TrEMBL record:
CC cofactor: Zn(2+)
Pfam families: F_bP_aldolase (PF01116)
Recorded superkingdom: Bacteria
Protein's name according to its UniProt entry: Fructose-1,6-bisphosphate aldolase
Reactions catalysed: beta-D-fructose 1,6-bisphosphate = D-glyceraldehyde 3-phosphate + dihydroxyacetone phosphate
Gene3D superfamilies: Aldolase class I
Keyword Chaperone: no
CC cofactor note: One is catalytic and the other provides a structural contribution.
Length: 328
């Protein structure tokens, strides 16, 4: 059944769990997510980026979600717009059945100027007004969150923003967060807490203190009714990197966010945890493996089925690790 982000995260807050938000672009990813959720009885957030909407097409995407909902009627399902960039993106998402939208007013802001902040407040408040009229939830974002804001994706050298901005700039200011939520009335807030998008988050093994727990805790304490969202939360598992590279891939060694760190975040108010890269890697590592092991194979299902299985296992692990399992 379709539910809003507010309904789902209120439940998560009550029970102290986090919900992974997995990105969807195609049927196989949708099936992987729902099979995993059904296996462990977890509620689901499926999110689609603007890129996903243009890749699959809004009609295809919407009907695919309808089908998944019909196949798994027992699973609460929130369909969320990932990184909406303006009112039109958010309004059309709702029209296609999204029950939640992210208005990412930080996309435009690569410096923390007052003008950027005012722009973010204005546009997010307009989206919140509109979405709340029709019963959809809104996620806003405050803070510089890594490389997506700097030209759409990872840096060319394969690494994120390390060294380019100070650690301080990468953290959301709690006072500003309080002001932002009061002014915009968002249901959930993505904060900058030390992560970035993509596979290349850290060039060394993280030392276990990579998230700004004090910032998370402080914002949560002052905004107990606003659910915190962690973007860039892929863990980039070594085992998947190894399969990818063992079968002809040339992915440079990289480190993501350790699952234990995410779990610590969940203990301090993080409720929505965005994961795309891990799902991509879970599938494409298997494409490489099948392609390398069977050079005559040309049936796409022979690639897609094991890739789907691999993504399903990853999703199932995250539902369990974040405590969402058993909460459908
Ligand atoms: O944060 C962005 C998500 O990973 C979606 O990426 O815009 O390539 O679909 P995309
Ligand atoms: P990852 O690139 O770490 O999977 O983050 C995805 C994300 O934040 C989508 O909004
Ligand atoms: Zn994101």
């Amino acid at each position: 059944a379709r539910i809003t982000l507010r309904q789902l995260l209120d439940h998560a807050a009550e029970r102290g769990y986090g919900v992974p938000a997995f990105n969807i672009n195609n049927m196989e990813q949708g099936l992987a997510i729902m099979e995993a959720a059904a296996a462990v009885d977890a509620p689901v957030i499926i999110q689609a980026s603007r890129g996903a909407r243009s890749y699959a097409g809004d009609i295809m995407l919407a009907k695919m979600i309808d089908a998944l909902e019909e196949m798994y009627p027992q699973i609460p399902l929130c369909l969320h717009q990932d990184h909406g960039n303006d009112e039109a993106t958010c309004a059309t998402a709702i029209k296609y059945g999204f029950t939640s939208v992210m208005m990412d007013g930080s996309l435009k802001a690569d410096a923390k100027t007052a003008a950027d902040y005012d722009y973010n407040v204005d546009i997010t408040r307009r989206v919140t007004d509109m979405a709340h009229w029709v019963g959809a939830s809104v996620e806003g974002e405050l803070g510089v969150l890594g490389s997506l804001e700097h030209g759409g994706g990872e840096q060319e050298d394969g690494h994120g923003l390390e060294g380019k901005v100070s650690r301080d700039q990468l953290l959301t200011d709690p006072d500003q967060a309080v002001d932002f939520v009061r002014a915009t009335k968002v249901d959930a807030l993505a904060i900058a807490m030390g992560t970035s998008h993509g596979a290349y988050k850290f060039s060394r093994q993280p030392d276990g203190d990579i998230l700004a727990m004090n910032v998370i805790e402080e914002i949560h304490r002052r905004l107990p009714n606003t659910h915190l969202v962690m973007h860039g939360s892929s863990s980039v598992p070594q085992a998947l990197q190894d399969v990818f590279n063992q079968f002809g891939g040339e992915m440079p060694q990289t480190w993501g966010v350790p699952v234990e760190e995410i779990v610590r975040g969940i203990r301090h108010g993080v409720r929505k945890v965005n994961i795309d890269t891990d799902c991509r890697l879970a599938m494409t590592a298997i494409f490489r493996k099948v392609g390398a092991q069977s050079k005559v194979e040309f049936d796409p299902r022979k690639f897609l089925k094991p890739a789907m299985d691999s993504m399903r296992e990853l999703c199932r692990e995250r539902f369990e690790q974040f405590g969402a399992a058993g909460n459908a």
